[in-house]
Design a protein that fits this description.
Shape: flat
Distance between the termini: 30 Å
Number of strands: 0
Order of helices and strands: HHHHHHHHHHH
Number of domains: 3
Number of helices: 11
Largest sheet: none
Structural class: mainly alpha
Radius of gyration: 27 Å
Length: about 300
């Protein structure tokens, strides 16, 4: 892992790694409950063994649990609230925060790989068109790969740079592309690399192969966009119902019912509640729309 900080881990990773050696026995046991952790760490290129990563998660969870527990205990003691009421609540909140911290660290490699795959696949169509233009213009494949590596294609440029570095050390273009195809977590990216490898091995025209790949991507994008548009229709209807119709008619019905029943209704409280609901609902809806958006669109 290249960076020396990780989100909620309270210390730099090299220092935290030394501290968590005391948790290795517990980390060994915890790692057995997450059998895919070894594979996820390898795909994320994190220089950790599963037991070391589980130990880091245990240390982080324990650290935040103790810090929150001590802080809340001091606050409740200073406020002179009854310990019989505050202590169970303080313990419950501390355990919950510690558990959330542990789970976040344990699943962070998987989240990192998912984000990496999305970044790579988002830039794939543009990078492949760039590669097609270069190859069709008579530029050697190595020079075209160098151009992609130096281009602004996010993590895709980083991955191609790995192949360029391997070629510079003496490995063949086929071997370098095979290395990318084996190690990359994106199935989409691996499929494209294997197609290029097969074309190079068979001696086929790499330009024609790239043209077929780009055409396939264009067709897949068209299908994905149509599917995405079909998914937006019910989401738009949901937005109209819950964000437009429901608040307007809801306030009207509440006012009418409160008038007939004779119950005093605090309109300010109702409006604040509806506004809070709308903010949460729209935030969730935007996240849902973004998560369904096709890669490269």
């Amino acid at each position: 892992m290249k960076k020396n900080r990780l989100g909620i881990v309270p210390f730099p990773l090299d220092k935290a790694r030394k501290i968590t050696r005391h948790f290795l026995r517990f980390g060994e046991t915890a790692s057995h409950f997450f059998p895919a952790l070894d594979f996820e760490l390898e795909q994320a290129e994190f220089d950790f063994e599963p037991r070391e990563w589980a130990s880091l998660a245990l240390f982080t969870g324990t650290f935040y649990m103790l810090v929150i527990f001590a802080t809340m205990l001091i606050i409740t003691s200073a406020s002179r609230l009854p310990p019989a009421t505050t202590f169970p609540l303080t313990l419950l909140i501390s355990l919950a925060i510690g558990a959330v911290s542990f789970i976040y660290i344990i699943f962070y490699p998987k989240l990192f790989v998912t984000k990496k795959v999305k970044n790579i696949e988002k830039n794939m169509p543009f990078a492949l068109r760039h590669l097609l233009i270069e190859v069709r213009s008579g530029v050697p494949l190595y020079n075209a790969l160098v151009s992609i590596a130096k281009g602004n294609y996010g993590l895709l440029s980083v991955e191609i740079q790995k192949a360029v570095n391997e070629i510079n050390t003496g490995k063949s273009e086929i071997g370098a592309l095979e290395m990318l195809a084996r190690n990359n977590p994106s199935l989409y990216f691996r499929r494209v690399m294997w197609q290029m490898v097969n074309a190079l091995k068979s001696g086929a025209d790499i330009g024609r192969t790239m043209k077929q790949i780009v055409d396939n991507i264009r067709a897949e994008q068209s299908i994905a966009i149509k599917k995405y548009g079909a998914q937006l229709n019910p989401l738009s209807l949901m937005y109209m119902i819950f964000a437009v119709i429901f608040p307007t008619l809801g306030i009207t019905f509440l006012l009418i019912i409160s008038t007939f029943i004779g119950i005093g209704l605090d309109i300010t409280f109702v409006l604040i509640g509806i506004l809070a609901f709308l903010l949460v609902f729209q935030f969730m809806l935007i996240g849902l729309v973004k998560s369904r958006r096709p890669a490269g669109v």
